[in-house]
Design goal:
Blueprint: E1 4-8, E2 12-18, E3 21-29, H1 33-46, E4 52-59, E5 66-70, H2 80-89, E6 95-102, H3 109-128, E7 130-134, E8 137-143, H4 148-157, E9 161-167, E10 171-177, H5 179-192, E11 200-201, H6 202-206
Helix pairs in contact: 2-3
Length: 207
């Protein structure tokens, strides 16, 4: 099970020249289809009159990982696939790279196009950098007012993220923890509370 994954640290762009052709690489973090469409439209407006806007993206992780790519009129497998290869080489996800080409009047050939599109994608991803995202599970912890102090301390001890604390007849703590900590943390709260506290995963609450 994946506990963390990598995404671009920040949006980036590069320009490379191959002969008389110009290739503009742009990279950004994306999480859903709407962001993908918006990013592509932005690049088309940024580079009007370009010959091709080729792209690739990968979303999700483990069994939920998906990808797509487009050669946008270039010979098959000469643009989108090399761009995706650059993304996968760095083990990135939730990542989209668009390489825009302005034709310079001299054909690059299949091998030349593959090298150029991969170079532009690899270059912009190097410029974008890489950051680690830790996967967290959302939980709910109903407890009494006299228990909130040590519940909070236990959450802090495992570096959980406390999202919200609601004070009503009882206290409801909403937090996010690493999946690897869930079983041990749940058992510890159960023992400390004499069996009165049961940690609830968000998806269990929704069922």
């Amino acid at each position: 099970m994946t506990l963390e994954y990598y995404v671009p640290d920040h949006p980036a762009s590069v320009k490379i020249a191959v002969g008389l052709c110009r290739f503009y690489g742009n990279a950004a973090e994306v999480e859903k289809e709407e962001e993908i469409r918006t990013f592509l439209e932005e690049m088309k407006k940024k580079y009007p009159g370009a010959s091709h806007h080729c792209w690739a993206y990968r979303l999700g992780y483990d069994s939920k990982s998906t990808f797509r790519y487009s050669d946008d009129g270039e010979p098959s497998q000469t643009a989108g696939a090399p761009i995706l290869t650059a993304i996968d080489h760095l083990k990135l996800t939730n990542t989209m790279v668009i390489v825009t080409r302005y034709y310079g009047g001299v054909k690059q050939g299949v091998g030349g196009l593959i090298r150029a599109y991969h170079a532009a994608a690899a270059g912009v991803l190097q410029e974008a950098g890489r950051k680690t995202v830790t996967i967290l599970t959302e939980i709910r912890i109903p407890c009494r007012y006299d228990q909130i102090g040590w519940v909070t301390r236990e959450l802090q001890a495992i570096q959980a993220v406390i999202v919200e604390t609601e004070y009503q007849l009882e206290v409801l703590v909403r937090a996010k923890i690493r999946p690897v900590d869930l079983a041990r943390f749940s058992a510890r709260l159960f023992d400390l509370s004499g069996g009165s506290i049961r940690v609830i995963k968000a998806e269990e609450e929704a069922e």
